[in-house]
């Protein structure tokens, strides 16, 4: 394998996209990284517009965003199917097994698992209030360099002043 020459490709309009983002001119959502149906594309566009309105850079939203969108759409579909089951059974999603035991319909478990998965991915994409607040706070510190030993220095200063006053 020849490692002397890296395989680099140039993305047309790459630098222009970054400068447009900095200037606040980016108005359309970034393209999703895979195939999506019409409903998923609407959810994708909505999420991107909400991130843009919140001032969150979402150009790297890509794969995690796609997982969120697809999981959300699957969860909504499972919820709709579960509601149909409830309507057919008079307001309950409980079913009887061949042995006579009552248990929730299988769609209940599918919807529950999809909701859990979705709730795990939402913070990763800055789609919860706490994650949005954290991202905005970190964005305000973007120009500052983090001091790896700052806490230790402050601790030593406080400890030294406590001993000197005794």
Topology readout:
Elements: H1 14-22, H2 38-53, H3 62-88, E1 94-96, E2 102-104, H4 106-121, H5 129-140, H6 150-164
Antiparallel strand pairs: 1-2
What is the mean predicted local confidence, pLDDT? 76
Task: Tell me the distance between the termini.
Answer: 68 Å
Instruction: Give the helix proportion (percent range).
Output: 55-70%
The global form is elongated
> What is the subunit arrangement here?
single chain
Number of domains: 1
Main sheet strand line-up: 1-2
Please provide the count of β strands: 2
Strand content: under 5%
Sketch the topology as an H/E string, one letter per element: HHHEEHHH
State the secondary-structure class. mainly alpha
Low-confidence segments = 6-26, 156-161
Biggest sheet, open or closed, and with what strands and sense?
Answer: 2 strands, antiparallel
Number of helices: 6
Radius of gyration: 25 Å
